[in-house]
Amino acid sequence: MPDWTYHPLRRPMELALGRRRALRLALAVVAGLARVPGGKAILAGFGNTQPPESARVRVAGVLCAAPAGASVSVAKAGDSLRAMPPLGAGLIEVGPVNRKSAPRLAAALRARTCPAVLRVRGNDAIAVASDLAPLVSAIVLDLDGSDPATLAGLGAVIGRPVLAGVTVRDSGAAPPGFGLVLRDGGVEDVKRLKDRHPEIVVTTSNPSIDLAADLVAAGARAVLATQDGLVAAGPAWFHRATIAILEGAGSLNPDASSTPRLAWLAGVGLGLGMIAGGVGAAAVALGPVLLPYDASYLRLDPSTLGRLNPELIHFLQHDRITLAGTMVALGILYTSLSWSGIRQGRVWARNALLASGVVGFPTLFYFFGFHYVEPVHVALAVVLLPLFVLAVWRRPSLRFELPDRDERPRERHLALIGQLVMVAVGIGFILGGATISYVGLTSVFVPSDLDFMRTSAGSLAGANGRLLGFIAHDRAGFGGALVSTGVAVLLLGAWGWHRGERWVWWTIAAAGLAGFGAAIAIHVWVGYTDFFHLAPVYAGSLLTVISLALARPYFLRRT
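RESULT FIELD:
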């Protein structure tokens, strides 16, 4: 997930709404999606924010998925308890809570999906803690305004672990032996206090992930970002801080050598097979146009096509070359995801390949709608489908990317704008492919197609009753391939945008050159240059160039 610190949407949102309102809106959107069935899985999967198992930590005896969490007010508890766990938060402290706000908080706590800690203070601390204790994992009693003697009595009454909440200045007031929640503590404070207290949780308004790692290395059990800290860092802080903490502890990445060789070899074979299929389709389109089984299905030969309509052969060539370019582009994406992704233990690369293939392979069954089974298409699918299954059947060894330390913040900012543009390109492919499939399965042509051939669908159908089904088969198949390519581009853009990953930049550049280059070249060659027909191709080409230009230093500069 892109880091909100330099997210391209952050500045306009802040100008329009203010920094706090911008974060509140972001949390509300994520929380809304988390309420939808399957929404939490989508958030964690799309952002790759699920903490690794090695990040698990016990705080006050409670198992937390990650050592990075948040400290939020009662007003923000509802959205925070829904939105932050899918983004990687392992623990959320809520409060201070009093008798007036306790009933409102109860409903939010019932919807929690990670351990919640209740922060109380003052004379009603025991009453509030007793009412909400069944809904929380631990209690934090702020010693500012509370009697330290209440700590022991509180634990006995509510039957939950109790920690003392203190500032650095009054940390000496905490009785030895109690765990601490240290407000805005530093590394030296943790080192000074850790011998007197069995565990220390630090809250911080500093968005630095390096500080979070240093605090844990000094002895803190967990680090909680305050609301001010999250305004500065954004919701991606949880995952980035967790990875930085694991990196500092030397437990980030297991050995990727156990990644099954068969998986990435099968993925490379799948990609190369797609490339070969695309090159073969282009050779046929530029040569005989129709293979013998095509001619047999249509009951005519290529020379007869020209007599049906002078531009019909050019139209078929434009369709098939565009499809061929898409197949080559998809093959480049698959080959690179397998060689540089799955082979290196990147789970997200395998998931991107899985999602793209799950969308793409079922389009083979479009032939049921046209009663035309293309033998080469079926044979290619029969060969490639087992390779796809072998490539994605098992997850590779888990490997997490090192967090970007933002040594060049402007460079990262431009790269994130490029990332946003690339995600938009992927979405455009998906929408365009779905539209083309729909047209192929229904009306077959768009108006500019018929203008190019100077004819009507009825005239073509009258000339040959099988011609429309033949053309529709090609068009729908192209739409399915474009959707599959869009999924791969979208996920590569969303998950693969890491500093120094040169292969991501070159993969997108090569796939874009193959896909857009073939489409533009064949349209110019056959004379089908209607601007509005080609506008999506021009827009996609331009946006891809802009994305790559913005991200070039981020990817290609030596680190």
